[in-house]
Amino acid sequence: MPRHRPDSPDFVKEEFPLYWLARVYGVYTMEMERALKPIGLDIPSWRALLILAERGTSSMSEISLHAIAKLSTVTKLVYRMKAEGLVDTATSELDARVTVVTLTAQGRQAIERGQLATRHIFQRSFEGLTPTQIRRLNESLHQILDNLSPRHADVAAGRPPSGESEGDAD
C-alpha cells in the first residue's frame, strides 16, 4: 500500500499531499490575516470582493459556493459589507427569491488596497515555480476537489448522484 495513504501501515505524513495542503493553507491564512487587518479587511470579505470583481454581479449562493462558506455565513457577511459600503444588494429580476450582490466604488477601492497589501504573499508563494508547474498544480487540486465532491462520493459508493444544491434561493 502506498506510503501517502493514512490507512497504510507504512504511512509517512510528508508523503501525504493533504498534509502539505493543510500546512500551506494554515500559513497562507496567517499571512493573509496579517496583511488584510491593517486595511480593515478580513479573509471572508476579501474572498467575497474578489469573487464579485471576477464575476460582476453574483447571488449569495454563488458567493457561498466560491468562497467555500455556508450560505448563512455569507448572508451575514454580505449585509456587514453592505453596511460598510463595499457592496450593494438587490432582488434578482429573474427570481424574486434570489438576492444579487454587486461591488460599489468603495468595494473596488478596497480590492485595490487589498491587492497592494497582499501582493508580496502571492509573489513569495509561487517563487521558483514555472507557469507549467502552477498549471499542473491547479489541475491536480481541481481533480482532488472533484474526487471529494458529494457527487463523486455518491458514485464511488454505488449510490445515485446527489441532485444539484437546493435551488439558488437566498
UniProtKB/TrEMBL annotation:
SUPFAM superfamilies: Winged helix' DNA-binding domain. InterPro entries: HTH_MarR-typ (IPR000835), WH-like_DNA-bd_sf (IPR036388), WH_DNA-bd_sf (IPR036390). SMART domains: HTH_MARR (SM00347). Gene3D superfamilies: Winged helix-like DNA-binding domain superfamily/Winged helix DNA-binding domain. GO terms for molecular function: DNA binding; DNA-binding transcription factor activity. Keywords: DNA-binding, Transcription, Transcription regulation. Residues 148-170 are annotated as: Disordered. The keyword Transcription regulation applies. Residues 14-146 form the HTH marR-type domain. This is Transcriptional regulator, MarR family.
